Amino acid sequence: MTVKRKELRAHMARAKKPTYKQKKIMDKQGLIVKCWLVAKETDTELKLVSRANGKTRTIKKPLRRQPKRKQNVTY
After folding, report:
1. Which residues contact 56 (CB under 8 A, 6 or more apart)?
2. Is 2 helix (H, G, I), strand (E, B) or coil?
């Protein structure tokens, strides 16, 4: 089992401290922000790594709504 962990760590980049926006997402998901590092961020999710034991967790990011565009009306 230790070989698998080493293989996983070899493919994973170094985890970083979360930004303010990432912290807000983590807080809304009910996580304690100071216990997690961000391993990877995509458009739809955050991959987190625990500072304590190295376990990974994936959380979904909320969808961003696009503002409605005004339609051009000519009279």
Report:
1. 39, 47, 48, 49, 50
2. helix
Alpha helices in the chain (DSSP H): 2-11, 20-28
Residues whose CB is less than 8 angstroms from the CB of residue 75 and which lie 6 or more positions away in sequence, other chains included:
none
Residue type, 63: L
* Sheet of 56-60, strand order: 36-41, 45-50, 56-60
At 48-67, the pLDDT tens digits run: 999 999 999 999 998 877 77
Q: For residues 44 and 13, which has the higher predicted lDDT (pLDDT)?
A: 44
Cβ atoms of residues 27 and 33 within 8 Å: yes
